[in-house]
Specification:
There is one protein chain. This protein is of the alpha/beta class and about 190 residues long. The protein is about 15% helix and about 30% strand. A six-stranded mixed beta sheet has the order 2-1-3-4-8-7. Helix 3 links the parallel strand 3 and strand 4.
């Protein structure tokens, strides 16, 4: 579904472009990239064939990367807190983590299990306290538990049609450029 490509188009054509040009410098890793690796210099992909993203720190030394990127990956992890802890270990101090996850409200339609991706193990929301999922994450309170500055944490609803809502997976096809996600950027202290 090329979620990373859609996000990069938006990021680099918005008022946040200077921030993302600052973030995507140096050596980076795109976790769960599949066939949609972000198009920036010096980035490497990491997907299932490379190992278990739940334990990224088992594959790379601490502070290996200037930035990490993960689009639509954290919701597939067995324990999102432990996974993010592992990801942050391989991030250098002062480095950035750019992560997007499906919105419990806009993408999932507050229906569990996910109708659009049965491999989701967690739900994420900016304001809902819970869900029937094994793991529910209420952002940004959850993010405050990490040794990072929250640069931002926003609902991304680019081209989302609220009249259609969650009756279909609006993020498909790619040509519609619909996003129904929460994106957050952390800077490691």
């Amino acid at each position: 579904m090329k979620e990373s490509s859609k996000a990069m188009e938006r990021r680099l054509s918005s008022e946040k472009e200077p921030l993302f040009k600052k973030i995507f410098k140096g050596e980076g890793i795109d976790i769960g990239a599949g066939d949609d690796l972000i198009q920036v210099p010096d980035v490497r992909g990491f997907d299932m064939e490379d190992g278990d993203a739940n334990h990224l720190d088992q594959y790379f030394p601490e502070e290996s990367f200037d930035y990490i990127h993960a689009s639509q990956c954290l919701e597939h992890m067995r324990d999102p807190k432990a996974a993010l802890d592992s990801w942050l270990k391989v991030l250098r101090k002062g480095g950035f983590a750019v992560i997007s996850v499906p919105s419990w409200e806009l993408y999932e339609g507050m229906i569990w299990p996910s109708r659009f991706n049965p491999d989701h193990k967690s739900t994420f929301s900016l304001w809902q306290d819970g869900s029937p999922a094994p793991n529910h994450v209420k952002l940004p309170e959850w993010l405050a538990k990490f040794n990072c500055e929250i640069v931002y944490c926003d609902l991304i609803d680019t081209n989302y049609n609220y009249k259609i809502g969650t009756s279909v997976d609006q993020t498909y096809p790619y040509e519609n450029r619909v996003e129904a996600f929460i994106e957050f950027v952390l800077q490691k202290r």
